[in-house]
DNA sequence: GCCGAAGGTGAGCGGGCGCTTAGCGCAGCC
DNA sequence: GGCTGCGCTAAGCGCCCGCTCACCTTCGGC
């Protein structure tokens, strides 16, 4: 019916926890609209329209337009954190876990590009209180990645001079995927995840970069994809 | 007088080529406002106010608010391209030139964060024609970096499986600096430039990563900075 | 079969938006 | 020393924004 289910609803992100059905439809419509045009350029009429409702219906389920963004942002950050925690706490060497963390984090940013865009780039549109709450989640994300890198340095697998700076760079690399990735482009989320895991292992000086990176993406081919053209940078 | 000169005007970016003085003041005010709040959340009244003029004055020098963004975006992209071309065409090995390209490109994104934010993140706010023109400049930016990497692969200095993908990742890493970097943070633009040059050389498998990266940033200390805390990610 | 709550609508409010227009002050020229 | 034209302002137009309110439907419980 509406395009909401095709784009944002079709992504891996479930939004299952958002409970009255109408509230969920509105939220998915908002994710789509915010990702496409940005928070400030999106009107409440547009959101309601995408969800197949009248403009006033929005205010039955949400107090303001900003509350919608806040809810999206919190759920998205919690999902991102969960992905990294899963990779970080599994069994295996720091090399394997870092490769797993990067490849799954990248897959989430690429496959759920619509959601990830809103989550990563609309932080400044939140008010001070909501913003502060989200920044707390971001610090946990940072700590999760830094933990793996520190462990790799301790075990001697990694050779990193500036752990904080390298952590920042690794996350930066993953997050920016949401800016440039397109499902119409030549690469699948899995391919980008495998490539980026390999690049990150090189960044931290892990010995068996190629092998561990491809193992983290299971049975996918990590080598150069066949398609010749890039999406815009 | 206005805050425009302190923030955007104080950056490395000259804007000297924007000729009537009033037009330049308006443009600098717009860069500031767009970087702070985003294009759509910025009002023409705000821009004019920052430049110390009445709202109507804007329309003497620019046809629309979008023309301001277009001009900023084109000048910024041309500057970015010039930086990369300078590094790419100097003497030296691919390793040295890649380190130089990355460190100077990162310095521009960090030091000129206000401008870089607008240039890198407000592309979608342009109309189709302006957008297409800017995308042409972006392809040239991409080609410049890809050229250095290809040369390093040919000479045997680099070991890269997916040249297109790695080019994308290198640019991605540099560009995302504009999102998180803060002058109030623990790192100077020079330190981030040196760190990132080192990380990129590792990504392409260059042998003497550390040495060439620090050489590219002249006499700066490339090792871990003293400050303990990170800016938000 | 009636009742109240839950969830929805159509119309519209106050206000701020991008942009226009009529007119003012003043430097440069004869 | 009056005239012209340019840079700028004050005022405001038409529009659409986020959000509200009075009212309407639907439906489970009795």
Summarize the structure in words.
The structure is a homodimer of 233-residue chains. Chain A is an all-alpha fold. Chain A has two domains: 4-62, Arc Repressor Mutant, subunit A (Orthogonal Bundle), CATH 1.10.10.60; 72-216, Tetracycline Repressor, domain 2. Chain A has helices at residues 4-7, 21-37, 44-50, 58-61, 65-89, 94-111, 113-121, 128-155, 163-180, 189-203, 209-216. In chain A, helix 5 packs antiparallel against helix 6 (94-111), helix 6 crosses helix 7 and helix 7 (113-121) packs across helix 9. Chain A is elongated. In chain A, 48% of the residues are buried. At the A-B interface, helix 8, helix 9 and helix 10 of A face helix 7, helix 8 and helix 9 of B. Chain A binds a DNA duplex (30 and 30 nucleotides) through helix 4.
Provide the fold topology.
The structure is a homodimer of 233-residue chains.
Chain A (H helix, E strand, L loop, with lengths): L3 H4 L13 H17 L6 H7 L7 H4 L3 H25 L4 H18 L1 H9 L6 H28 L7 H18 L8 H15 L5 H8 L17
Helix pairs in contact in A: 2-3, 2-5, 2-7, 5-6, 5-7, 5-8, 6-7, 6-8, 6-9, 6-10, 6-11, 7-9, 8-9, 10-11
Chain A binds a DNA duplex (30 and 30 nucleotides) through α4.
> Tell me, what's the shape of chain A?
elongated
Assembly state of the chains shown: homodimer
**Helix/strand/pairing class of chain A, anyone?**
mainly alpha
Q: Give the beta-strand count of chain A.
A: 0
CA gyration radius of chain A, whole angstroms: 19 Å
Share in helix of chain A = 55-70%
């Amino acid at each position: 019916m509406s395009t909401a289910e095709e784009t944002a609803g079709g992504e891996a992100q479930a939004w299952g926890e958002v409970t009255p059905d109408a509230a969920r439809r509105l939220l998915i419509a908002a994710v789509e609209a915010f990702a496409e045009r940005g928070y400030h350029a999106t009107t409440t009429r547009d959101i309601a329209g995408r969800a197949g409702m009248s403009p006033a219906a929005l205010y039955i389920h949400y107090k303001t337009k900003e509350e919608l963004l806040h809810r999206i942002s919190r759920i998205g950050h919690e999902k991102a954190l969960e992905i990294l925690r899963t990779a970080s706490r599994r069994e295996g060497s720091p090399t394997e876990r870092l490769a797993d963390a990067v490849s799954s984090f990248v897959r989430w940013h690429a496959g759920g590009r619509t959601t990830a865009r809103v989550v990563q780039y609309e932080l400044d549109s939140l008010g001070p209180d909501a913003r502060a709450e989200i920044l707390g989640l971001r610090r946990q994300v940072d700590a999760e990645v830094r933990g793996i890198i520190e462990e790799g340095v301790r075990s001697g697998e990694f050779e990193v001079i500036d752990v904080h700076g390298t952590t920042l760079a690794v996350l930066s690399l993953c997050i920016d995927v949401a800016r440039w990735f397109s499902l119409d482009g030549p690469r699948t989320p899995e391919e980008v995840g495998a490539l980026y895991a390999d690049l990150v292992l090189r960044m931290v000086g892990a010995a068996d970069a190629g092998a561990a990176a491809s193992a983290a993406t299971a049975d996918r081919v990590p080598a150069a994809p066949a398609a010749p053209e890039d999406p815009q940078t």
